[in-house]
Design brief:
This protein has 3 helices and 22 strands. It is mainly beta. Bound molecules: calcium ion (CA) (2 copies).
């Protein structure tokens, strides 16, 4: 699948996240520009475990941004990486359970939003957290040297600006701790008497839940636990008018108050909460209690 330009053998077991060693790596891929898009279909385990999409890209092209839909529903965005990231990168997108649970195949569409030049893709790996372990569910090696694999995944691209191979520095190894966490965007939850605020500066996926200002204002998030027990939730928020609090309810029973120290609006900070979760999917409600806080995302550790 990949060949090192230095002639050093690289073990590629199951996809892009298993590169052994460092060095220069050659891969084929494609890119599309304004008005363009790509689409493909991947298989997942229908058991309902969380799904993560990993994209291998040439990070030398700055500010690449595309909208992602799955089976026709919005599923998030590929957000720009930092401008100082170069070489190969492996970008992760945790898909919201609303588009994956109960599905056995995912039709993914990436639609160009903006970029310094174009939006490139060299491989996609679909991972699923089975029994707490990230497992490769499917792999699509994009590029003109992998036409059979592209056809098998019904891959198509419009507005193509590039196809060919590039040789770049290997992607840095992902950190284990960050890799294990699953991110749930607040704006992908079910919102009551509040609103999704797009264009939130510095927020994950550029959007948050705002207007959690009334007694009946809340957002419900579905979060996954591979087994029953206590989990740490990292809750990212902003509070700009005094310290705020939400009432947190887990599966309609356990109730506690979560405090959000004031750091200013659009200043995204993290507080931790300990959640008693059942095996499988749980519903966690964040509800207005005192003053005002916007919610960006929650990670379960
Ligand atoms: Ca490729
Ligand atoms: Ca967010």
């Amino acid at each position: 699948m990949v060949v090192s330009a230095l002639g050093v053998g690289l073990a590629v077991a199951g996809g892009v996240t298993a590169w052994m060693g460092r060095g220069r790596v050659t891969d084929d891929g494609r890119a599309f520009g304004p008005g363009g898009s790509s689409r493909f279909t991947v298989r997942i385990d229908p058991g309902g475990a969380p799904v993560r999409l990993v994209r291998r890209l040439d990070a030398g092209i700055d500010r690449q941004r595309a909208a992602v839909s799955v089976n026709g529903s919005p599923a998030g965005e590929w957000q720009p990486l930092r401008d100082d990231v170069d070489g190969w990168a492996e970008q992760r997108l945790d898909l919201p359970p609303s588009v994956t649970v109960g599905q056995s195949s995912l039709a993914v569409v990436n639609t160009f939003i903006s970029s310094a030049w174009d939006f490139n893709e060299f491989a996609y790996v679909v991972q699923q957290q089975i029994d707490g372990v990230w497992t490769v569910a499917d792999t699509l090696d994009v590029g003109p040297l992998h036409r059979a694999g592209e056809a098998a995944h019904d891959y198509r691209v419009t507005g193509e600006t590039f196809h060919g191979s590039r040789t770049l520095d290997a992607a840095p190894a992902a950190g284990d701790a960050a890799d294990r966490r699953i991110r749930y965007e607040a704006e992908a939850g079910v919102v009551s008497n509040a609103r999704v605020r797009p264009g939130a500066a510095g927020a994950s996926q550029g959007a948050v839940v705002a207007g959690l200002d009334h007694a009946d204002s809340w957002v419900d998030l579905r979060v996954y636990a591979p087994r029953a027990g206590r989990y740490t939730a990292l809750v990212t928020y902003a509070a700009g008018y005094g310290d705020a609090q939400h009432t947190v309810t887990v599966n309609g029973s356990t109730v506690f108050t979560l405090g959000y120290p004031q750091h200013g609006w659009d200043v995204w900070r993290r507080v931790t909460a300990s959640l008693p979760l059942s095996k499988g999917w749980n519903t966690v409600r964040f509800q207005h209690h005192t003053r005002w806080a916007e919610l960006d995302h929650v990670e379960i550790v």
